Every structure is written in structure tokens, then in C-alpha cells.
Amino acid sequence: MARPMRKNAVLKLGGVGALAVLLLGGGLQLASAGENTGSTAAQTVNCPTVRDKLPAVPASAAAGVERELANLDEEIARQNERLAKQAANPQGGANFINNAILGPLKSKRVAVLDRIEINFNRAGAQRPDLDALATCGLNAPGVASALNSSVKAGNAATGGNNTTAAAQTVNCPTPQIPAVPAQAAANVQAELANLDKQISEANARLAQQAANPQGGANFINNAILGPLKDKRQAALDRIEIAFNRVGAQRPNLDNFAACGLNGAGAGNAGNGNAGAGNGNAGNGNAGAARTVNCPTPQIPAVPAQAAANVQAELANLDKQISEANARLAQQAANPQGGANFINNAILGPLKDKRQAALDRIEIAFNRVGAQRPDLDSFAACGLN
């Protein structure tokens, strides 16, 4: 019997919503397939979720596992984009989708799942068998793909509304650094970025702990805050050394090493070191490099399911500040361009990068069913 022809519809493939989300470097980025007229609705890949199938994740493996779960979602988003293009402009024969999309996707998932298993093994935990989660099928046209960022951990304590408990975040003091000599600026900014990376990693572990509690009453102190203090002390020592090497007085930063905890759901702790990114503003000393002055995003309580993604984007914001400050340090040492060079070559691109990261934070809320915050006003930066 001849199959009835399906009427073409005018639809925006870019509006497929959460299934077109790309996580880049730990972050979320919306990938629009554009607006197409006269195309059929796109199918999406139907992959088994992994987060909810995992046993309790050891704290030392949490960051690695989170990265790989993000990789799985990134691959789903990429293949959904390809399916959207295929719907708009069909190519190949009957087996094109199996051979060019689903087959390669399975191979990539096998590699990612292997890395998740290895993360367990390296932490001394039993290696889970995730092979059965590699193969994906297809959803009906217009049905969103299930994503790991949208499901809770398999053994997380849940409430009546099927959400996990909000995670605590680390509360680290902002190092009070004197005016940084231009020759030391790049090294100091690199270490400030390390401090922010350490905060982000610790917050990711706290998010995992909220979803999959383990250890006793002292677990967070012994396994998260203690190692974080040691890492911060090493980074602060390197900042002091950077001053000493260029003949400047070595500051004493030891009392900025220890961190505490914010209350559960405090969403801005991942950016708690943002002030440090601006902490080397000149105090009137000639030759000191200027630094960017970026507003700290005021983020509402972060749902536990979105915590890892939000922390990754807060770390991106701090990295962007560090990179911009490094460029300002180079500009102070070797001026170039005209009067508008800093605005056009540093502050303008920084605003664009911050806007993208802030958008991905908003999307992280939206994807787990929370109200999407409006963070646009935090994109533009000035100068200290």
C-alpha cells in the first residue's frame, strides 16, 4: 500500500530547543540550524542516559566523570544538528543515517564510556560496565533527546519533586595583591586563573557529593577543603615568587589559602575568586598594568542538576578575565594601537565572550526546568 505523503511544514530547526545545545570546554552553547522553509521535521538521536545508571561516583573521579558526561551530551547535540541538516537537505541512500551518523556516534560513545570507567578505576572504585549504553537509535521527528545534564544521579536522595538537594559551594577569600609589576603580570594572572580553576573543581566535587553523598561527617573537610587549601597555598606561593623574581617586594599571601563553605544553593561561589582576577589593580604606581573591572553575575540558587554546568561557565568567566588582564599587562609593557585599542581589541571581545558564557548559564537553568535568570547586564566590563 502506498504510504501517504506527509505535508511539509515551515519550522525553525534552530527552535528544537535543548536538543541543540552544545557543551564546549565544559560549557553550554546553543547551536542553531537556522531557519528553513518547506523542510520536514528533524528526527533526533535517542541515546540511553548514563548519569542515572552510574554507581556512586568517588569524589576524586567526579570532575573527570562530569567532563565525559558533558562530552556525551555534546555529541548528541552535534548529531542532532546533522539530522536537522539532513531533514532540510536529504543526502545519501536509505542507510545514510545509520552509516554516517549513528555508527560514528556509537564509536565515540564507546570511547567516552571507557574513559568514565577508567575514572572509577583510577580512584580505586569498582569499574562499572557501561558498554550497553553506547548504542543510540532515533526519536520521532520533533522529540527532544534525553541528556545527561537533565537527569539526576541514579542513587541521589530525592525529594517529592524529583530534584536533588542543592549543592554547597566553597567560600575562598580573595587574595589582596599589591600593584603587580608589568614583568610579573602574566605569571600572576596565570596563577589567579589556577585559583579559580581550583574553586571550580572543588565546586564540581561538592555538586557530585550533593547528588551522591559518600564518606562520613569529615569527608568534605578531608577530601575537598583540605586538598584545596594545599593547592591554593602552592598557587599563592608562585604569585609571591613572581614578585620576587622581578625585584619587587614579595607579598605575604598565606592567610588566603584556607576556604570554607557557602550555604547550599549559593550559586556564585564558583566566581568567588573573580575579585582576585581584578585584585591587582594599580594603586597609582607608574608602570603597573590596568586590569578589567567586570561585574560579578548575581545568580539565584543553582539547581543541583545544573551545578556542574554553571560552575564550568563561571570558571570560563574567570578565565576570560585572566586572559584579558594578561593582554592588558602586555599592553602596559609594550603599548600598541591607538586610543581605542583597549576598547576594540580587549574589552569588546571580552564582552562578547562573557555574553556567550552568561547565555550558557541561563540555558543550564532552563534545561532543568528552573526559571531562566536574566544575566545580560553582567556582560560588559570596564577598567580598574
Short structural summary:
Keywords: Coiled coil. The chain is mainly α and 384 residues long.
Structure characteristics:
two-stranded antiparallel sheet, 7 helices, 46% helix, disordered N terminus, mainly alpha, two-stranded antiparallel ribbon
Sequence-ordered SSE layout with sheet pairings:
Elements: E1 9-12, E2 21-24, E3 27-30, E4 35-39, E5 45-46, H1 59-88, H2 96-122, E6 137-138, E7 170-171, H3 182-211, H4 219-245, E8 260-261, H5 274-277, E9 292-293, H6 304-333, H7 341-367, E10 382-383
Antiparallel strand pairs: 1-4, 2-3, 5-6, 7-8, 9-10
Coiled coil: 62-89, 185-212, 307-334
Keywords: Coiled coil
Question: Can you describe this structure?
Answer:
The chain is 46% helix and 8% strand. The protein has 384 residues and is mainly alpha-helical. It folds into two domains: 9-150, no CATH class; 170-383, no CATH class. It has a two-stranded antiparallel sheet with strand order 1-4. The chain has a two-stranded antiparallel sheet with strand order 2-3. A two-stranded antiparallel ribbon has the order 5-6.
Instruction: Note the gap between the termini.
Output: 74 Å
Strand order of the largest sheet: 1-4
Instruction: Supply the helix-strand structural class.
Output: mainly alpha
Work out the count of structural domains. 2
Number of helices: 7
Largest sheet: 2 strands, antiparallel
Number of strands: 10
- Percentage beta strand: 5-15%
Low-confidence region ranges: 1-39, 155-165, 265-287
H and E order:
EEEEEHHEEHHEHEHHE
What is the average of the pLDDT values? 77
Our Rg estimate from Cα atoms comes to 23 Å
Shape: globular
What percentage of residues falls in helices of 4 or more residues? 40-55%
